[in-house]
Amino acid sequence: MHPIFLLEKSELKMIELSLSGLPIEWNPDKKRLVFAPALEDVDPVIRRLGEMQDVLYRKGGSRPENTDPRRELYYMYRDVHLREHKNLLRERGIRYDITIIVPGTIGEEYVKTAGHYHPVKPGTEFTYPEVYEVLHGRAHYLFQRPHNPAEPGKGIDEVIVVAADPGDKVLIPSGFGHITVNPGDDYLIMSNLVADNFASIYDPLQEMGGGGYCQLVSPGEEDDLLFVHNPSYLSCPPLYYAEPVELPGFSLLKEIPQYRAFIEHPQDFTFLTHPENFQEEFNAYLETLKK
C-alpha cells in the first residue's frame, strides 16, 4: 500500500478519494483533481452542456431549458497512475481513469454522461468491457445491449440499471453501451479500468437521442427511480434494476480499490483486453444481476 499524502487544503473542503488507494483529492472550489508528487499530473477533458444536446431528454421534442452551452458537466482524467506503475499498465494494455460528474439537473433530467459503445476487438466478434468503481457520491449505471450497434434504430435487447455507492464495482460486460447518471446532490467521482487501445463510439447514442431510457427527477421520495422510455427507439425492453455484484475471479471486491487490485493481481484483469475468452463469465454475471 502507498501512503495517502497530505495535500494543501483550500478554504472549501477538499474531497479525499482514499477509496481509490491513490494520493488524490478533488478540489470542488477549483474543480480540479489534486495529484500528489508520486503521480503524473493529468489535465482533464471537460464535457460541456453544448456538447450534450443530442443526447438530452426532450419533453414534447423541445430542448431542455438549461441555457449556457459552456456549463461544465463532467471532467475526465485519463491515464492516471503512480509513476512507478506506468510500465505495468502499458505492458498489460490497461488504462485507469477518473471521472467527476457535477450534481444537478438538465431540465427534468439528472446530469449524466453522453454515453458510448465500445468497438469490437480486432479478430473477434466481441466488444471490449469496462469496469467502474464509485469513489464518492452515488451512481446509476445504465447499460444496454443493442440488436446491432451499427443500426441502433432497430432497438435494444436488454437494459440494466445498477445503483452503486462508494466502494462498489460495476462491470460493463462485452456487448453493451453505457451511460452514467449522477442522481445525488454531491459530486459523483468514479474510476474505471479499460483497455487502452481503442476509442469509444458515441455516434449511435447521439443518433438515437441518448439511451433507451432517461432518468428524470422524481416528484416523490428522493430514492424513487423515474426512468422514461426514449421514443426514438422502435423497441425497448423493460428495465432490470440491479445491485452491484462482487466478482472475486476478476478481483472486483468492494473493500479493495480496483487500482490496488490491478497492481497486485494484473493477471485477473485479462478480461479487459481479451473479452473473447470470458464470454461465459460475462453471461453468468448478467444472470446474477437479473436475479
Mean pLDDT metric: 91
Strand order of the largest sheet: 4-5-6-14-9-12
The CATH class designation is Mainly Beta
Shape: globular
Can you put this structure into words, describing what you see?
The structure is a single chain. The protein is mainly beta and 291 residues long. The protein has one domain (15-289): Jelly Rolls, CATH 2.60.120. The chain has four helices and 17 strands. It has helices at 86-92, 203-207, 258-264, 279-289; strands at residues 15-16, 24-27, 32-35, 45-48, 72-77, 94-101, 105-106, 109-110, 130-136, 139-146, 156-164, 169-172, 177-181, 188-195, 213-216, 226-229, 239-242. The chain has a six-stranded antiparallel beta sheet with strand order 4-5-6-14-9-12. Strands 13-10-11-17 form a four-stranded mixed beta sheet, with no helix packed on it. A three-stranded antiparallel beta sheet has the order 1-2-3, with no helix packed on it. A hairpin with a 2-residue loop joins strand 7 (105-106) and strand 8 (109-110). The protein is globular and about 50 Å long. The relative contact order is 0.17. The model is unreliable at 1-10 (pLDDT under 50).
Quick overview of this protein structure:
The protein has 291 residues and is mainly beta. It has four helices and 17 strands. The protein has helices at residues 86-92, 203-207, 258-264, 279-289, and strands at 15-16, 24-27, 32-35, 45-48, 72-77, 94-101, 105-106, 109-110, 130-136, 139-146, 156-164, 169-172, 177-181, 188-195, 213-216, 226-229, 239-242.
